[in-house]
Specification:
The chain is an alpha/beta fold. It has a single domain, classed as NAD(P)-binding Rossmann-like Domain (Rossmann fold, 3-Layer(aba) Sandwich). Helices cover 50% and strands 17% of the residues. It has six helices and five strands, in the order H-E-E-E-H-E-H-H-E-H-H. The two termini are 20 Å apart.
């Protein structure tokens, strides 16, 4: 079983490298992955506002994010994608008050989406979150969706078993 998993990991890495590019900054070469996306669970929280989105903004500003990339925020807080984008803009401006670049933000914001979810209701995942993922996937032009989730165990155990 372990060798089968290793083979799948190797295949996934090879697929990512096939669509990746490299950028050299000073003495370092950075490999930029091919088309991909990031789903942030608990996206309305403090960690997303203070650390995750400002870090992604900085990567975008320095051209380290893939051209075809999306961010899907998901949390219990009811809000629209536009409202989520406004909150993230405020967070980025707070993080970089002297170094904010509107054109870099404009490139990133079009890759940002939001979906409210109820962690205890499986239909939330099968419905609205899946729909947003499928819509967001169009920006990467990839046919498959791969996800890695580290959830709080209780609600997800019911879905898995």
């Amino acid at each position: 079983m372990g060798s089968k998993n290793n083979q799948k990991v190797e295949e996934a890495v090879a697929q990512m490298k096939a669509g990746s590019t490299s950028r050299t900054t000073g003495p370092c070469a950075v490999e930029i992955p091919g088309p991909c996306g990031l789903v942030i669970f608990g996206a309305s929280g403090d960690l997303t506002k203070r650390k995750i989105i400002p870090s992604l903004y900085r990567l975008q500003k320095n051209q380290y994010l893939p051209e075809r990339f999306f961010i899907l925020g998901a949390s219990r807080t009811e809000m629209s994608t536009d409202h989520f984008r406004e909150e993230m803009l405020s967070a980025v401006k707070d993080a970089f008050p002297k170094d904010f670049d509107q054109s870099s933000w404009n490139e990133l914001v079009n890759k940002v989406y939001y979906s409210p979810i109820d962690y205890n209701v499986q239909e939330t995942y099968a419905g609205s979150l899946r729909e947003k993922l499928l819509h967001s996937r169009k920006s990467t032009r990839r046919e498959e969706i791969e996800s890695f989730i580290w959830p709080s165990p209780r609600p997800f155990m019911r879905m898995l078993f």
